[in-house]
Amino acid sequence: MKKLFSIMLGRYFALAFLLFFSGKSFAENDNYTRAADTFKAIEKLYGVEDVPLFRETYPFDNHLKVSYLSNQEQAEQQKLYSYLWPFSGSLSAVTALLEVKPKSDFRKVLTKTVRPGLEMYLDTRRTPTAYASYINTAPVSDRFYDDNIWIGLDFTDLYLLTGKKEYLSQAKMVWRFIESGTDDKLGYGIYWCEQKKNGKNTCSNAPGSVYASKLFLATGDSSYLQAGIRLYEWTKENLQDPADGLYFDNKSLNGEIGRAKFAYNSGQMMQSAALLYRITGEKKYLQEAQRLAAACYNRFFSHDSQSGRKYKVLNRGDVWFTAIMFRGFVELYGIDHNSLYIDAFRENLDFAWTEMREKNGLFNDDWSGKTKNDSKWLLTQFAMVEMYARLAAIDKENNR
Predict the structure, then answer these.
(1) Phi, psi for residue 53 in degrees, rounded to 5
(2) How far apart are CA 79 and CA 378, in angstroms?
(3) Which of 357, 328, 363, 321 is nearest to 342 (CA)?
(4) Per-residue DSSP letters for 85-127?
(5) Rounded distance between C-alpha atoms, residue 121 and residue 290, angstroms
(6) Contact 186, 205 (CB under 8 A)
């Protein structure tokens, strides 16, 4: 009996030792597995045989008319494949996964599926070269500056992660297109759509600032830093609500403000401020990032817990907007290590895995878990991949 007790006690201490020293890596692996499994479900349910592209929705809707284009005639056309914006989520998702495990099989997904698919949207018929909103074998489609910025950001991150110059070349190519979308109307700023230059949006200028700052980190070229600061200051001056610090959506050329407030806009200004603090060390940027974090937490999370949960629940809305806002919180956390906001995301994402996710591996968009979507948008699924991967990256860093 004593021998058996001794064996059991030894196993207990061995397990306790493993949990104590490796607990965070379990969380890291768990969230990485969630991200990887979701990506595989996307490939299975949205993938198209014989071409490296995805459907816009699941189930596939032969009569889908998307609502986010500036050209309704293009939106009314039947589309066999997704538009660029949802497809670009695959690049963000794979980039986030590779940040956790750079030598994983997702390297092959990047080279064999995501990049070849992305090149099918590349428009070389117009200059500067950039990615169009639909594939290049179809009639010419509009080109959006914000769509291209998300892609340029991912290529910059891939370069910072791998050091491969091909990624930096792609990032610089996209930046040339972004620069072509600026002028002195309204004092500066990036337009939203190349074909409809009637206003300037936070969704172009805030991530544009992040993009320029990251290009500076990648190259050391001060012209990028100057652009990042200028875009940050322009957006702050023209589109910030002084009442709560959050950001309005757009400013038309006649000076009228589109007053909608979306999570990703303020989240990108949070990330921009955090990056500029990292680069310059100027406290004003850190203070602004922290102010925005508190404001976003107050606006885009519920004030009261739901269903007895002891944390603030993310408001229902565009899940991709939430994922882009999360980038801002992650950037700030890397500086001040205030875990309040990251912990709130962790709680929401843990709940989502069991209550928002269906048997086929796809997610609904209601963080309370109360409602389900009959049609599931491609970009929502890629956003979930990205958020789980970013949690895994935090856990990996904390476990070092």
Answers:
(1) -130, 175
(2) 14
(3) 328
(4) HHHHHHHHHHHHHHHH-TTSTHHHHIIIIIHHHHHTTEE-SSS
(5) 37
(6) no
Per-residue model confidence as pLDDT tens digits over 189-248? 999 999 999 999 999 999 999 999 999 999 999 999 999 999 999 999 999 999 999 999
Alpha helices in the chain (DSSP H): 2-46, 72-76, 84-100, 106-109, 115-119, 145-162, 165-180, 202-219, 222-239, 263-280, 283-300, 319-336, 340-355, 378-398
Cα separation, 258 vs 250, in Å, equals 5
pLDDT, tens digit, 9 for 90 and up, residues 106-145: 999 999 999 999 999 999 999 999 999 999 998 899 999 9
Tell me the C-alpha distance between 88 and 97, whole Å: 15
**Angle 263-280/222-239 helices, nearest 10 degrees?**
140
Determine the Cα–Cα distance for residues 64 and 150; give it in Å rounded to an integer. Answer: 24
269: nearest Cα among 227, 313, 239, 301: 239
Torsion-angle region of 337 (φ positive above 0: left; ψ -120 to 50: alpha; else: beta): left
Q: Which of 198, 207, 178 is nearest to 190 (CA)?
A: 178
User: Which residues are paired to 251 by β-bridges?
Assistant: 200, 257
